[in-house]
Amino acid sequence: MLQIKDIHATIGGSEILRGLSLDVAAGEVHAIMGPNGSGKSTLAQVVAGHSDYEVTAGSVTYRDIDLLDLEPEERAREGIFLGFQYPVEIPGVNNAVLLRSALNAKRKHQGLDEIDAFEFLKLAKEKMAMLGMDPKFLNRGVNEGFSGGEKKRNEILQMAMLEPSLAILDETDSGLDIDALRAVAEGVNALRSPDRAIVLVTHYQRLLDYVEPDHVHVLSEGRIVRSGDKTLALELEDKGYDWVREAANG
Amino acid sequence: MKSPALEFDALAAAVSALPDSGLTAARQSALEELRRDGMPGVREEDWKYTDISALVDITNNWLAGGSTAASTAAEPAAGLEAHWITIANGRVDENSIEPLPEGVTVTRLANIRSDLAQLGRLGAFNTALLHDGLHISVASDAVLDKPIGLLLSDYAGGGACVSQVRVNIELAPGSRASFIEHQVSSGVGDLYANVAVNLAIGDNAGADYVRIQDRAPQHNQTGYHGIELGRDARLRQASFDLGGRLIRDDLVVNIAAPGAEAEFGGLYLVGDGQHVDNHTRVDHRVGPAVSRQEYRGILAGRARGVWNGKAIVHEGADGTDAEQSNHNLLLSQSAEINAKPELEIYADDVKCSHGTTVGQLDEMALYYLRTRGLDKSDARQMLTRAFALAIVGRSPIEQIEQLLLDAIDARLKGLLRETGA
Amino acid sequence: MATEQENLEQLVNRRYEHGFVTDIATESLPPGLDEGVIRAISARKNEPEFMLEWRLRAYRQWLDMKEPEWAHVHYPPIDFQDISYFAAPKSDEDRPKSLDEVDPKLLETYDKLGIPLHERARLAGVAVDAVFDSVSVATTFKEKLSEAGVIFCSFSEAVREHPELVRKYLGSVVPQRDNFYAALNSAVFSDGSFVYVPKGVRCPMELSTYFRINAANTGQFERTLIVADEGSYVSYLEGCTAPMRDENQLHAAVVELVALGDAEIKYSTVQNWYPGDEEGKGGIYNFVTKRGDCRGANSKISWTQVETGSAITWKYPSCILRGDNSVGEFYSVAVTNNYQQADTGTKMIHIGKNTSSTIVSKGISAGRAQQAYRGLVRVMPQAQGARNHTQCDSLLIGKECGAHTFPYMEIKNPGAKVEHEATTSKISANQLFYCRQRGISEEDAVNLIVNGFCKEVFKELPMEFAVEAQALLSVSLEGAVG
């Protein structure tokens, strides 16, 4: 589904990704781990199309489309979803308006009719119940004044509504208490399906106790230095990131 | 550059030609004042960014043309539940006054021999040419269930037209009332409307006030709103400038007794060729008291916006808590904003702050919306609208929210079209 | 709290430490101003013809100009014919070649002021061009500077030795008729400093000047011109202190800075002129025009000021950001106590693309003082990508003082980002109590809080100035809390 080939990316002139390659097939869950500054978030933003990041070499292909040619919204409508590490607060734009506009933008792209208000509300409430969210959130400004946990749940809600083919969740587990973590994990698990891929970007193994990955990759200095199955994550937890750095350098 | 002077002989003749009434003496002394002080010019600090010489020209043309007033039959906005009183081309529509809600009395200024308070730099101009005005009183402890609407409507058929509006509102202690001032106009002629409103809110009384300025794009207006707050009185005010060519409004809030709370603010949507200037001044003469103001502007085309907010904390006004904020979005290369948030503080136990920004939509928010599949222009529109809605949220009169939203959406569409966004 | 009140009053009443009069006979022109006086000044200084012409042109323009009245300050009218426009120490004709030759009484004066010239010059590696009244009397480290090709001399010397540079840059940032006081200065300026840093040179030391005002009824009209050629860097320190006088003294300086492409000028001031006594009598009128021109791309001009002195201050160090990507900065601490009045701030004029400016202004007002921040941020239509951030905070100490903020923002480019924030607050009783409960005296607590309030600015000062600035601040505010 997603092929990243030898990609190099810079922000403000400094190179963050230095020859990273990754293949993600439909139905798979990948976990990308690595120390701070290793390039995890950059990878997520490059796939989503943030204009501050410049791809200087390599390619990103998604379902045979050259992703780097597309605007962020075109990527989204093709089914790519990014759960932000720091979800943006947008005062004045209410959650329901955003969700409905996003959903309709995608439906329009797929040649479907717009969802009607009643159906939308029903769907939203259903998903919110699943995530343990108060329906009042629908009428609040996007992430405005939300706690860290509420923001992350809100990201998962958007994902659940938009039903992406490829979901990249950037540190969705950070700053969550155990209940919120469980709710988020349930949301992710509910989305697992043979025609969908999920990439979890995370610093800790904690989330992986709830969402079991098929593949685990360790990032260091802009490259994947180790790949393996879920046991790699446990080993990493045990030995720490220094071990990876040493292994990479040695 | 010297601002063109009023044609005084013609003006004096026009003043004398007004029907003899309780206002006659006040008009004559205002005329003398005007002769002495003249009209405000750009050399004055408060008028630095707003040149009204075009309005003086309109006045001179109007005087030369016989200073007539067209008669119009204006209709209040549909579906707005309010007790509407109409002032059309500066003429009070007698028929629209009665029947009054309980606790409200309305007197025509022409029927009482009154000394009118000087309201602002253009107050003398207003008084000198005033045909008639209104004095509205709300009785002690009266609570009105419907807003009182002031429909200020002007029609300029051809040639030049000048109108003066004067309304004094007095809320007796303990009363509650809300007001909608709707300023509209039509016709292809030149119009200069000069509005002066005085609102005195008694002890423990509360006033909600919304001003909607939706003049025709070729018409001009200057306005002055003087507001006085008594002990524990409360003001909630919001203004919306949507239309007009040259618009200037002064909002002057006087906190003269402890415990008062004043919240006010406004939204100005300014398009090509428009000039909108909001000046505010709040005097904290005693404390404790609170003032909060927030103004926002969106400017497109060759728009020019001015915002000048002044908070003065006088000696001894301890316990003052004053906040001002002003945010502006410039949508086009040739739009311009001049912002000046001022604090003058002569007491030490105070909390004052202001924040002003000029900028663009938040890039991160735009990106976030785009990752959710919204295209650039939709995302832009959504954020622009959200920026404006913050002020609608401050509007104290719920009944008019829909009307405001519709008017704002229509105007924003125009602005975004002008910028090609 | 009675004892505290007393302590405070004692502190407030402490006399100005630097207030004394040095007994040196001065050779002055009689009071009054006409073309003859200007010719006399120019002749006394052996100036070339072009300089005299320039002065006369300024004088004729000044005659048509009016004193500005818009500032938030009040003072009795100044009689410009009652001011003597030239005074020089007697030793002028036979100038000292080294510090040893300097009038010992003058050196003693500096010692009393806590400016150990020898030490400062030698130990701190600072070249000092001390202006006593109007004429430069000592310049050190000249050799080291000339090795690097840096010209640092008195303005009079520059006019004689480097007329081509003076001609090229004088008045190019602050035109003669810029404002009333700048025009007056242009006509009668006495002396000042001149700095030229050649292409690619990083000036090897901080340059410093101490200004003093001494002779009675003497107007002081310094003129400073600093030119940083392409790719160069210079840091210039200006410090002032003045003896006590009963008559008000007018001071109208002009400082012009020119930064060419990739050049950087850092200009720091500690101003501690006599502020007048606790009754508001005496003190310096400080009406200064300071402006920097970021003429070339990627240039930078940074103003840092700590203003504690003067009875009246009227001063707006500004930056014209002409070159693309140029940077302007203004960091200011202003303290006013007793009857002092200050109307100060900055102007940032964005003309070039991607220009950015930062304004941090910290005002502290105590006693019966009135202080105003007045600032202008103007973004011209062509200044795509301009950025400004302004933070403007006032701290009030006492019930009878005032703090005012008058910022102007004139924005004509949609790509500009301009942010202005201002707050006004007082030192809270809670903060003081908290400190005192921890064993800190009230006076120290005030210093602590005030220094914390000003930290952002102090960190911009060169080290040796930062220490002096903090000390000055506590002297200026002693006893201000009531």
What this model shows, in words?
The complex is a heterotrimer of chains A (250), B (421) and C (482). Helix content of chain A is 37%, strand content 29%. Chain A is built from eight helices and twelve strands. The longest helix of chain A is centred in the middle third of the chain and has 15 residues, at 95-109. The mean pLDDT of chain A is 89. Chain B has seven helices and 19 strands. Chain B has helices at 8-17, 24-37, 53-64, 123-128, 363-371, 376-392, 401-419; strands at 83-88, 91-92, 104-108, 134-138, 148-155, 160-171, 176-186, 190-201, 206-214, 219-229, 234-241, 246-255, 261-270, 275-284, 289-299, 304-313, 320-330, 336-345, 350-359. Chain B starts with 7 loop residues before the first helix and ends with a helix. Chain C has helices spanning 2-13, 35-44, 49-63, 104-112, 117-123, 142-147, 155-161, 163-169, 180-188, 429-437, 442-458, 463-477; strands at 26-28, 87-89, 127-132, 135-139, 151-154, 193-197, 207-212, 223-228, 233-241, 249-251, 254-259, 264-272, 284-294, 300-307, 312-315, 318-321, 327-336, 341-350, 356-366, 370-379, 387-397, 402-411, 417-426. Chain C contains twelve helices and 23 strands. The relative contact order of chain C is 0.11. Chains in contact: A-B, B-C. Chain B binds chain C through residues 45, 315-316, 318, 328, 330-360, and chain C through 70, 379, 381, 394, 396-426.
Count of helices of chain C?
A: 12
Give me the secondary-structure category of chain A: alpha/beta
How many strands appear in the DSSP assignment of chain C? 23
What's the CATH first level of chain A? Answer: Alpha Beta
- Which two chains touch over the largest interface? B-C, 36 and 35 residues
Which sequence of strands runs across the widest sheet of chain A? Answer: 6-9-10-3-11-12
Radius of gyration of chain C: 22 Å
Low-confidence stretches of chain C: 1-16, 18-25, 89-96, 116-128, 130-138, 211-218
- CATH topology category name of chain A: Rossmann fold
Q: How much helix is in the residues of chain C?
A: 25-40%
* N→C terminal distance of chain C: 9 Å
How many H/I helices of chain A?
8
Q: What is the number of beta strands of chain A?
A: 12
Shape of chain C: globular
Oligomeric description of these chains = heterotrimer
Distance between the termini of chain A: 33 Å
Helicity range of chain A: 25-40%
Radius of gyration of chain A: 18 Å
CATH level-two architecture of chain A: 3-Layer(aba) Sandwich
Q: Approximately what portion of the residues of chain C adopt beta-strand conformation? A: 25-35%
